[in-house]
Amino acid sequence: MDVDTRLLRYFAAVCEEGQLTAAADRLYVSQPTLTKQIRRLEEQLGVRLFERSRAGMVPTPAGEELAARVSGLLGGWDGTVRAVRQAANRAGGVLRVGFEGSTINLVGRTTVEDFARRMPGWQVRMRQNNWFDETSGLLSGDIDLALWHAPAAITDRYNCADLGTEDRWAVLAADHRLAGRAELDFAELLDEEFVAIPLEAGHWRDYWLGAEERRGRPARVGAVAHNADEWLAAVACGQGIGFAPQSMSRIAGRPDVVYRPVRGLSPSRVGLYWPLGRPLTPAMAAFVRSCREHIAVQQPAPGPAARPVAAQTAANGAG
């Protein structure tokens, strides 16, 4: 039987925290997503792992047996992964960078070539974000860095190398009643139907629906899209409107869609992100420098200070 190690990590976190809410916060996933994954593990094993009650999550006898073994299983696998990657790195390695549908266009050939000069023998492998994983693969180690447009508060969860800020604009079908306006106000969009990303995207779904600015007022969802192309097609077909980085108006233009600035909607913080507690490697630091050298993004607006990259770069000896 093959079991995804991510499911085992989810199981271990629930055992250690004793409740779904705390475990979900620790794992940077939504509680419904965590519940779904625990049920998936139970289905694969054919056993019940927890007794669920108001007091929390209590392992069943089968759950206790798995809990006693899971640490060794994961530790052995993590050690194997590290050894394999170290062997690859000695001969030159691969830096895996996740990107959103729009941010990939920020990284051009000059950025990649600059990185190659800084890290001879290395290459950059770009991977589009998975909307069904809130961490886009950072937590599992599938990627090393994520290039995101994100809320400033996300630095409570991740390290960030700032690249700048960018406004979020409204995206509407060309025949929408507001399409003729040069600028929109957030308040007049509250009752509009939106094209949302999946529930599994957790806080990203909320962010791109403008949840903070809504102040508790729920969004009306007209359609749910599973990738960037599907999302834009749904907007063009009039199934709802949405918010996107301003730069998307330049790189994803089409005659049946318009992009408009929005008053009252906070900008995105553009940066390279990686998990708290995970060291900045020389390759990661080199890519940060290459991006800062060749990616042009609006200068950061005043806000929460980013965790300093320079100190970590020096500590890791990146050149």
Automatic annotation (TrEMBL):
<keyword id="KW-0805">Transcription regulation</keyword>
<dbReference type="InterPro" id="IPR000847">
    <property type="entry name" value="LysR_HTH_N"/>
</dbReference>
<keyword id="KW-0804">Transcription</keyword>
<feature type="region of interest" description="Disordered">
    <location>
        <begin position="299"/>
        <end position="319"/>
    </location>
</feature>
<feature type="domain" description="HTH lysR-type">
    <location>
        <begin position="3"/>
        <end position="60"/>
    </location>
</feature>
<comment type="similarity">
    <text>Belongs to the LysR transcriptional regulatory family.</text>
</comment>
<dbReference type="InterPro" id="IPR036388">
    <property type="entry name" value="WH-like_DNA-bd_sf"/>
</dbReference>
<protein>
    <submittedName>
        <fullName>DNA-binding transcriptional LysR family regulator</fullName>
    </submittedName>
</protein>
<dbReference type="Pfam" id="PF00126">
    <property type="entry name" value="HTH_1"/>
</dbReference>
<dbReference type="InterPro" id="IPR036390">
    <property type="entry name" value="WH_DNA-bd_sf"/>
</dbReference>
<keyword id="KW-0238">DNA-binding</keyword>
<dbReference type="InterPro" id="IPR005119">
    <property type="entry name" value="LysR_subst-bd"/>
</dbReference>
<dbReference type="Pfam" id="PF03466">
    <property type="entry name" value="LysR_substrate"/>
</dbReference>
<dbReference type="GO" id="GO:0003677">
    <property type="term" value="F:DNA binding"/>
</dbReference>
